[in-house]
Specification:
single chain; alpha/beta; about 45% helix; binds adenosine monophosphate; binds zinc ion
Length: about 475
């Protein structure tokens, strides 16, 4: 079945066709964190949805090149650095590190690139793009020295947000409270320096200043992914004005359709309201871990609902996540047991192997319908458990389900870290080996190493002493 996604641009479910079937990999751009504070779990709902998307594309055989930007200069980061009385770079660094740490806890695959807006290379690219927009008549410098995008000159402006601009239309110059813009909807590409910015400024043909938030993403995406992207994602709050502005800027410079598929994730809510810094109703990843939940449980809680459906965050939801993961773990333990038995349970009517059941992947093909995919997983758990209760699942079927799980889990990434249980025989040989080494009996130590190896284990001598691990050929 072909992959289908809901494209915010058309507001329709569309069959996924990459730019050029021969031009691999898929180019994917995902708006990353603004590092003025630790990201909250609402932000991570968006990043987990993007992770699911990337992993499913990969399961379907696509190679994905993903870029996630880090917004490390904007009004909020500048204000934060000023209040903390530290340089901007020092202020943002702590939140960049916290972001990477939390993403790892939630098992989010790292993007191929994490460009930072303040990197000189991208600042230059922003200045270059703004200059092109000015020469194309799409931007102008206003009396306040800032440079603005002229939305009236870009006929497609408003198409992504399905926003009717006529109400904002104006013919003459509109005097706005803060700015001297031609049109109230014109947005800043380059913000002229003012005292509040302190030492945060770059030279430009328009005087000292700093980039607007929207141009940052256009510059980083076109610099790293070229003139057209297959998929661009973010939360729904990014649609307008951020992504609308990105389209105007990128297409205004490149003269080509910027993004083929726009995918946006609905919000994580608390008591029916968007989880947001400004509403002070947020939790961070460490907040959740401090209540003794694991990153894996939080990943499940944020993953389990279709990305276009708002998800209410509750502690009951966290407990349900824990229960669901325990059901999966118990099931895997049982399957492993049955798979090991040589003359294991005989298969009867439940010989149906998962290989014939593609429902999980088909559900994800259908606009990442994770709820249906998980529904299929738990129904399979119920059925196979029943078959095992009745002694009706043979070893080969159990193994087939384990293989099926392995493939499905390459998308979900929910399996518990395997606990390393060293068999007593191997532990005993390892102790013997230590004694031999203490006695400098190298021959015996080597023999013991070989015996340990023959049992499927490997001894690695580390600074903290010998460590046992399954050797590679044992999988
Ligand atoms: P920001 O750091 O505010 O630029 O946001 C980073 C990403 O998180 C963006 O894609 C936002 O759309 C997304 N986001 C922010 N709040 C939420 C929320 N409550 N639920 C889901 N996504 C969110
Ligand atoms: Zn962005």
């Amino acid at each position: 079945m072909a992959l289908r996604f809901f494209n915010t641009y058309s507001r329709e479910i569309e069959e996924f066709e990459p730019r050029d079937p021969a031009a691999r990999p898929i180019k994917m751009y995902t708006c990353g964190p603004t590092v003025y504070s630790r990201a909250h779990i609402g932000n991570f709902r968006a990043y987990i949805f993007e992770d699911l998307l990337q992993r499913h594309l990969e399961l379907r055989g696509y190679k994905v090149h993903r870029v996630m930007n880090i917004t490390d200069v904007d009004d909020k980061t500048i204000r934060g650095a000023r209040e903390a009385k530290v340089p901007l770079a020092k202020f943002t660094e702590q939140f960049k590190q916290a972001f990477f740490e939390d993403a790892k806890t939630l098992r989010i695959k790292a993007a191929d690139e994490f460009p930072s807006a303040t990197d000189q290379r991208y600042i230059e690219r922003m200045i270059e793009m703004i200059s092109t927009l000015i020469s194309n008549g799409l931007a102008y410098q206003a009396d306040d020295k800032s440079v603005y995008f002229r939305i009236n000159k870009f006929p497609n402006y408003g198409k992504l947000a399905h926003f009717d601009l006529t109400q904002l239309q104006s013919t003459g110059r509109v005097k706005h409270d803060e700015y001297d813009k031609e049109h109230i909807g014109d947005f800043a590409l380059w913000k002229a320096w003012d005292e509040e910015d302190g030492d945060v400024k770059w030279d430009s043909p328009w005087g000292p200043g700093r980039p607007g938030w929207h141009i940052e993403c256009s510059a980083m995406s076109t610099a790293l992914l070229g003139d057209q992207i297959d998929i661009h994602c973010g939360g729904v709050d990014n649609i307008f004005p951020h992504h609308e502005a990105e389209i105007a800027q990128s297409e205004g410079v490149m003269g080509k359709k910027f993004v083929r598929y726009w995918l946006h994730c609905a919000h994580l809510l608390v008591d029916g309201q968007k989880m947001a810094k400004s509403l002070a109703n947020f939790y961070t990843v460490p907040d959740v871990l401090s209540k003794s939940y694991t990153g894996r449980e939080l990943r499940y809680a944020l993953l389990r609902v279709h990305y276009r459906v708002p998800l209410n965050f509750t502690w009951e939801g966290m407990n349900e996540a824990r229960e669901s993961l325990t059901r999966i773990e118990d099931w895997l333990v049982r399957l492993r047991e049955v798979a090991k038995q040589e003359n294991g349970q005989r298969s009867t009517s439940y010989a149906e192997r998962p290989t014939e059941k593609a429902d999980f992947e088909n559900a994800l093909d259908d606009d990442l319908n994770i709820s249906a995919a998980l529904g299929f997983l738990f129904e399979s758990i119920r059925e196979t458990n029943r078959a095992m209760d009745e002694g009706k699942l043979d070893a080969a079927s159990a193994q087939a389900w384990l293989d099926w799980w392995k493939r499905s889990d390459s998308v979900l990434d929910l399996e518990a870290e395997a606990e390393i249980v060293v068999p007593p025989e191997v532990a005993h040989l390892s102790e013997e080996r230590e004694n031999a080494r203490r006695e400098k009996n190298w021959k015996r130590s080597d023999d013991l190493r070989d015996q340990i190896f023959a049992l499927g284990w490997e001894v690695r001598d580390t600074k903290e002493g010998p460590k046992l691990a399954r050797h590679a050929s044992c999988g």
